[in-house]
Amino acid sequence: MSRLAPVSLAELTAEIVACRACPRLVAWREEVARDKRAAFRDEHYWGRPVPGFGDPDARVLVVGLAPAAHGGNRTGRVFTGDRSGDWLFGAMHRTGFANQAHSVAIDDGLTLDDAYVAAAVRCAPPDNKPTTAERDRCRPFLDRELLALRHVRVVIALGRFAYDVVARSLAVVGAPVPRPRPRFGHGTEMVADRYTVIGCYHPSQQNTFTGRLTERMLDDVFFRAHALARGVASR
């Protein structure tokens, strides 16, 4: 059983937004917010850690790597305002988890049904590469998020980095993963107590432009999560 103190999602969001634990990430996120990309020069950048968002009663949790420098770090909502988010929310809309297929701003009307989206690391990292120490400092937020999201049964890990962090968090909250742990791959499923973790290639441009990840592949993961969350699919 977990010994973590219970916390509400609202309390956790406030803690995440106020965090300054990683000097390198603080410096980078604030530099990006100050020296804006030309296309967004008239916009106010968020420039702080980005909390998760979605349905507090969600049975499906989606975990990405980290906010994009000019995506979540600009808009204040993970996967919002970047190409990866276009792919992610497009798939979530097609599979019934989102009310719309696009997310461009925090106030654009996007709502999620039975799903919650978060990141393994809450600040935009240089070159999209958090250090091991940064990963480990940030991971307790996910530990506590899992406890606050009491109805979650399925976790979709977008990429190997998120898959590894999710496995560590599950062990902390009292759901140790099997040993040997299944290797990450697209469509890999790992059962840990009441959770099923599904591996999914990250909807990064590197994967989507090359065809390593297609819309059909992404949709299939969310359809599978939908079925597992409702207990209508065999494992």
Give an overview of the whole structure.
The protein is of the alpha/beta class. The chain has a single domain (about 10-230), classed as Uracil-DNA Glycosylase, subunit E (3-Layer(aba) Sandwich). Helix content is about 40%, strand content about 10%. A six-stranded mixed sheet has the order 1-3-2-4-6-5, with helices on both faces. A hairpin with a 2-residue loop joins strand 5 and strand 6. The longest helix has 17 residues, at about 130-150. The protein is globular and about 45 Å long. The protein starts with 8 loop residues before the first helix and ends in a 6-residue tail after the last helix. The relative contact order is 0.16. The mean pLDDT is about 95.
Global Rg? 17 Å
The CATH level-2 architecture is identified as 3-Layer(aba) Sandwich
Task: Give the strand tally.
Answer: 6
Basic shape = globular
Strand order of the largest sheet: 1-3-2-4-6-5
Structural domain tally: 1
β-strand percent reads 5-15%
Write down the secondary-structure element order: HHEEHHEHEHEEHH
Output the CATH homologous superfamily: Uracil-DNA glycosylase-like domain
- Oligomeric state of the chains? single chain
Secondary structure topology:
Layout (H helix, E strand, L loop, with lengths): L8 H10 L4 H12 L18 E2 L5 E5 L7 H4 L7 H12 L20 E5 L12 H17 L5 E5 L1 H13 L16 E4 L2 E6 L4 H6 L4 H15 L6
Parallel strand pairs: 2-3, 2-4, 4-6
Antiparallel strand pairs: 1-3, 5-6
Helix pairs in contact: 4-8, 5-6
